[in-house]
Write a sequence for this structure.
């Protein structure tokens, strides 16, 4: 049985406990955070829809290609084991297995570059960057990202030209096995292009963070 005399204003205790200033403020805060579209209610603006769609697409593509690149480590291991067994057990050296290991390693780091950037696994050497706040890091990245975008853009154009040349002239590697160079150059071009796309996606994320906007 509820005792009404326990309430400081003669009302039931449950009603009095929910009418204080602290509870009112807390209720408003919870209501703001849990309601649909609370982000818009909090005044956080979003970048344009096509930019957010581009970032989502690039992240998904980079992740899937990166997973394929991870699987290439097993292919690389197979070529290295074959070369070692052939040399140590049978006393022969297979040039093809050595060169395929080189091509596989090249495909591994070219295709995995976008995922490394996405997960921030790349090597960074700095003196003061690590001491910046997240927003200052974003501003710094926005300032210097165009340099990297220009470099990768130039690299991508050169890769396209090199791939076209390899296809037109049927370029082969200068070795007794003489494998065609077009396949690895196509992979190289795709990997560089994907990394360029990922850098631009990260650039948009940094712009959103610097402006206090949402990219999701």
């Amino acid at each position: 049985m509820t005792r009404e005399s326990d309430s400081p204003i003669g009302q039931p205790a449950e009603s009095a406990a929910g009418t204080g200033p602290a509870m009112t403020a807390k209720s408003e805060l919870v209501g703001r955070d849990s309601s649909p579209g609370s982000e818009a209610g909090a005044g956080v603006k979003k970048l344009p829809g096509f930019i957010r769609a581009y970032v989502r697409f690039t992240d998904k593509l980079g992740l899937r290609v990166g997973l394929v690149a991870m699987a290439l480590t097993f292919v690389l291991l197979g070529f290295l084991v074959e070369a070692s067994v052939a040399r140590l057990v049978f006393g022969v050296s297979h040039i093809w297995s050595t060169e395929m290991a080189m091509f596989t390693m090249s495909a591994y780091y070219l295709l995995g570059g976008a995922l490394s950037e996405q997960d921030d696994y790349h090597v960074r050497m700095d003196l003061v960057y690590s001491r910046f706040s997240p927003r200052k890091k974003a501003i710094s990245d926005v300032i210097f990202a165009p340099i990297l975008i220009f470099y990768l853009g130039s690299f991508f154009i050169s890769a396209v030209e090199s791939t076209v040349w390899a296809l037109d002239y049927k370029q082969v590697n200068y070795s007794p096995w003489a494998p065609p160079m077009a396949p690895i150059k196509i992979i190289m071009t795709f990997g560089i292009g994907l990394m360029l796309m990922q850098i631009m996606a990260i650039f948009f994320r940094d712009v959103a963070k610097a402006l206090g906007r949402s990219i999701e």
In short: Residues 49-88 form the longest helix (40 residues). Residues 1-41 have pLDDT under 50 and may be disordered. Helices lie at 13-17, 21-34, 38-41, 49-88, 95-111, 113-118, 134-169, 182-211. The CA atoms of residues 172 and 180 lie 4 Å apart.
